[in-house]
Amino acid sequence: MRPRARHPEKEIEKALRDAEVDGAVIEVRGKKGHAWGRMNCGRGGQHECRLRIWSTPGNPYAHARDIRALMRKCPHVGPEPELARTDAPVKEVSNER
Length: 97
Ligand SMILES: [Zn+2]
Known about the structure:
- This protein is 27% helix and 15% strand.
- The protein is of the alpha+beta class.
- It has a domain at 10-76.
- The chain has a 3-stranded antiparallel beta sheet, covered by helices on one side.
- It is elongated and about 75 Å long.
């Protein structure tokens, strides 16, 4: 595999690498515009979590935090996330004799 281009901001690059370890897919775009690229969680198929990566964000630390937050909040962890939901209707107890 071709190595990914590095992000110019050290903090962001670090966050991207951690995300990649967790399975994130990072796509680096060309030099057009101010988006450096984008990432997705790599786990959700069509409904995966996505984030645009800026090349020169005003606050690189905040942007790195966004990247980490995306992976942390990603609901696509585990094989069957639906099973974890507990919204089954509660059975009513009747007092009939
Ligand atoms: Zn996700």
